[in-house]
Amino acid sequence: MQRPIIPITLLFLCGIYLGSQTKIPLSITLGICLFFWIVCFFTLFLNKSCVFLLPLLCIFIIILAVAYYDCRNDFIPRNHIEHALGTQKSLLRVRGIIVKPPIILEGNAHNKLFLNRQSNTFGEKSHHKISFILQAKEMKTVSGWEEIFGHIRVTVYLQDEELLSGITLQELVYGQRVELLGHAYLPKTPGNPGEFNYENYLKRQKPSINSLMTILHINNIKIADPAFRSRFYSFIYALRNYLNNTIYTHAFSNSAPLISSMLLGNRAGLSVETIDTFAKTGIIHFIAISGFHVGIVIVTVLLPLRALGVNQTATIGIIVFVTIFYALLTGFNPPVQRAGIMAIVFFCGYLVHRQWDITSSIFTAILFILLQNPSDLFSIGFQLSIMATMGIVYGAPKIEAVLFKTALFVEKLQAPEERGRLFFIKKYVRKLLCVSLAAWIATLPLTAYYFHLFTPYVSVISIIVFPLFWIIIVSGIVLLFFGTIFPPFASVFAWLASATDIALESIVSTLSFLPYSHFYVIGPSLTGIFVYYLLLFFLLYRTYLSIHYLHIVLWGLISANVLTFSGIIKSRPHALKVTCLDVGHGAALFIQFPNGKNILYDAGTWHNYDVGKQIVAPFLWSEKIKKIDLVILSHEHNDHWSGLPSIIERFNVKRVYSQPYFFQSETGRIIHERLHKKNIHTAALSHGLEIKGFEPVTVKILHPSFSPSSSLSTNDNSCVVKIEYSGHSILLCGDIQKQGINTLLSEQQAIRSDIVQIPHHGSYSVNLPQFINRVQPSYAFINSQHNTVSHMTTNTLNDYHVVTTQTHRDGAITFLLNKNGIMYSVYRN
């Protein structure tokens, strides 16, 4: 069989996927694996030409992959740390060994960071932090120290004076024993549909991370005697830390984070704005270590070796060493592994006089990566890297042959002396355009599926920024070299890398604001992705499969129509759907009406993440929502509107309404100006108004009045909305407190509702019992975090026999109202 690595890798891949989707006990999987191994052995021994041998071997490889995946991911011993912790933070004392140390800045690099932080810091509390991975060994309990197993991601928050001293920090090296005192907890499972699963992300790392710990003071870290540690890994981590310090010492303070990310894969210092800007232009892979970086490093080493006349064997040995060394320095992540293996196979082929088989090299790299960590199959970076590589290898020559057929034909006829000065520039632009276009086409459905982004200009942008990117990488490598052996020379190349980085970031920022430079999209389904890649496969291999272009086009059009209209032809349920999302201390409720329209009631949180970007937008995309007909902001506190800027950037928002005082406040004026730039209509809501356009559902505003009393607090001026449909109703109360509740009660309004949002995140008010008695709800929900819900509130609801759900406990809460009654469900069981 030619290229046996290809079917073996594909079968192994299928087995990993099957293992992730099944929950078969490991003992049964190992038993089945042993059974098929015995069957294959005796089949091969008795009759090598047996027709059953090949299918039996295929089944054996799949079952072997399932067992391997289960052994690596599902085996949890009894003394595992997961059994000792919950999702709520608990104070814990742990002993263990550092297996992945933090990057600590020292000397001049440390001073530059401190001065830069002083000039940019506002407020008293520092936001600087470091992270490392601890292999837990012991945990302090009531009965004493007990043996424990598992890996903990430790985050240490540093004050400026701790950052300045840095004495303890420099001892946090690979293999160091430490005793930690901090708040430990398990990562939460997602609380909302479409939300990023951080728990799975941590478990799929290498090593698998099982829990988290936060430490608020450096004195809570005690250094113990060093454990036995590998000298090799100690050297690698120490060198990586030293090289990172070299970059921060010599480069401009505002350029060092991006240069460090490009050279060493250290993205800790990158700002969210920088990452978003590169993502919007489609070149996020430039700032993350990938196979492309490996290629540039190899070329940078190869050219001087050739110029010096080094013989072939020595050159290949040096390149193999540099490739492995660079992969280790960058953390040996999957893209670097893949590129490194391919490069080593390619150059070693010269030594044994074998022709390089790129297909076998790609599948060898895939198999090697999955053997190291089978969970990498589900890594976004792994999938994008593999598809981009295949697109470049198999698609770029086809694209060049189609788009530049005449130019290629003329080049074949030309003699070298006939080629002008611009020949190589034209060839460079053509090659880079085809490579960028091939990578973009190959990764298009994945970027739309994971990031919900469509970047049409990416090929042109890549041509513009690639020379700058090359200059930064090459000058950065020279900077690291001279920074190690002769620091005075390093400053010259540090200046070149920093100046080029400033130009790069400026260009990318400008390009990201170009009209139609990026679009936010819902993203394809898994079926759509499969159809897309099947279509590409037919296009690439149509000659081998004897398929005509017309057949492929017809099949593509039919598939596109089926995928597009399958969702449209589904009958729309005649129901009112209300979803309260879990955003911590904040509020975000999405209401879907039977006529296809929708309302977003509030979108904010007090937590330090973008609720619009990380929770509301993924939920709306999972619901296939492209536009929002109306946003109602109950009042001007951040925990009810902080996610609005991200929402209006990602969705077509028609209108934004709030209570009369909102747009008169300082916060409201800033929001109003941003909405005006987007041509989004704004208006004030007050008591008695009925919002039209959502029939047959009735949407009424019960509070506040058009001229609310100045004696009422901001919370008490919240918009109270009552929604009625098919004989059922739901009351949304915002953050009204005692005075706001009294206003509703005194006006004798029809506030009777089947479902009620408990005001002010479940906090207790003295007139809450009277309010519940008047509303007489069957169901209540509380958007909150665990420490804001009052026991007196829950006791009151229990006294009135109200079914109560809470977002921090149950995740997203969904109510479905129709003529048959009310149904509710929670996302987190």
Describe this entry's structure for a reader:
- The structure is a single chain.
- The chain is an alpha/beta fold and 829 residues long.
- The chain has five domains: 69 residues; 149 residues, OB fold (Dihydrolipoamide Acetyltransferase, E2P) (Beta Barrel), CATH 2.40.50; 74 residues, no CATH class; 43 residues, no CATH class; 251 residues, 4-Layer Sandwich (Metallo-beta-lactamase, Chain A).
- Helix content is 49%, strand content 16%.
- Its main location: membrane.
- This is Metallo-beta-lactamase domain-containing protein.
- It is a multi-pass membrane protein.
- Pfam families: Competence (PF03772), DUF4131 (PF13567), Lactamase_B (PF00753).
Note the main sheet. Answer: 8 strands, mixed
- CATH-defined topology of the largest domain: Metallo-beta-lactamase, Chain A
- Separation of termini? 50 Å
Q: Could you tell me the strand content as a percent range? A: 15-25%
CATH superfamily of the largest domain: Ribonuclease Z/Hydroxyacylglutathione hydrolase-like
Low-confidence stretches: 121-126
CATH architecture call of the largest domain: 4-Layer Sandwich
DSSP, total strands: 26
